[in-house]
Specification:
mainly alpha; 434 Repressor (Amino-terminal Domain); 6 helices
């Protein structure tokens, strides 16, 4: 339980929206690039749900950042 709660807290301060906007992408555009739905992108950015491991990996690879950076564990 602690691990899940901790992960949700970390993703509440995620960088997905910031990274997406830096690339000039819409939620729909990012969703197409990483093969997910626009609804998932929206929920991730609003911290309503946490991306699964595969989606974290795809996001980190797409944005050329570490998963730790993506979820807010490291600054850069």
């Amino acid at each position: 339980m602690y691990m899940i709660h901790n992960m949700e807290y970390m993703f509440s301060h995620n960088r997905i929206k910031e990274l997406r906007e830096e690339k000039g992408l819409s939620q729909h555009g990012l969703a197409r690039m990483i093969c997910t739905s626009q609804a998932n992108i929206c929920r991730w950015e609003q911290a309503k749900i946490v991306p699964n491991v595969l989606d974290c990996w795809k996001l980190a690879e797409f944005f050329d950042v570490t998963v730790d950076y993506l979820i807010g564990k490291e600054n850069d």
